[in-house]
Amino acid sequence: MKKVPYYSIRSLFYLISLLPFRVIYILADVLYFLIYYVVGYRKKIVRKHLVDCFPEYTVEKRLKIEREYFRLMSDYILENIKLVRISKKSMMKRMTFSGVVDMVETMKEQPIVLVYLSHMGNWEYVASLKYWLPEDVHAAQLYHKLHNPYVDRLMKEIREQYGGECILMKDTLRRILEYKRDNRKVVIGFIADQVPSNDNVHEGTMFLNHETYFASGVEKIATKLNAPVVYAELSRTKRGHYHVHFSMVTSTPKEYAKDELTNIYASMLEKSIRKDPALWLWSHRRWKRIPIQAQKKHQQA
Predict the structure, then answer these.
(1) For residue 11, how many other CB atoms are within 10 A of its CB?
(2) In angstroms, what is the C-alpha Rg of the chain?
(3) Strand, coil or helix: what is 184?
(4) What average pLDDT is seen over the chain?
């Protein structure tokens, strides 16, 4: 009986995924109206974030970004339900990549490449990178378990349907060391713009007009392995179509001082956000909690 909720959710998602994209976006428009105008889901949080991050913008410009953000959120929800049933051809049409050849080329010297990702656009689409990689290159991504075990199971299935692998945060180092032991070529994605855990936080940097703390996991692992670090910039080409460009941050992370790579990521991410602000996850409470380690630093100052 425990499987009933899972199959109920999956069946509902499957039925919706059978709809053509033109209908999917009609549903997304309806959802946008309900979320933004009726429910007002986290509208105050989004509005405050936009005021605090872009005080130089006019009220009209911020409201335009706000409405566009909620439209994209509605698209994101329906697009990801559609992923339950989507062809390889359709996925490769809607999510394209550049810089893949250069990234793979670095694997001749170091088989493990770490990628800085972020909550931009439809980040779930990035899992389809495996379609764009040579057969001998594996793809993996770190993930946090969702609170709902049924949705978590379904999302894991969706993310791994392209041939990649989802790695739980707690298993990160063990799995990477296994790749290294087997001399396996692998691209590993880290969504690094979340509030860090208390044992995995850097010293803080100015980001979007806030003192912000990022997880330092990518930097620590890269330094330990001297693995190349790549930044993935996601952009939107048109509704429902996204593009990621991979650019090398460094192929020699051991040459960088502590926190330097994390700060570079923060700077690159801010530039990406300013190009198209509505693409970022503004309803996430990014600055609500200050890690204990950072609190101690302030108390000592």
Answers:
(1) 11
(2) 20
(3) coil
(4) 92
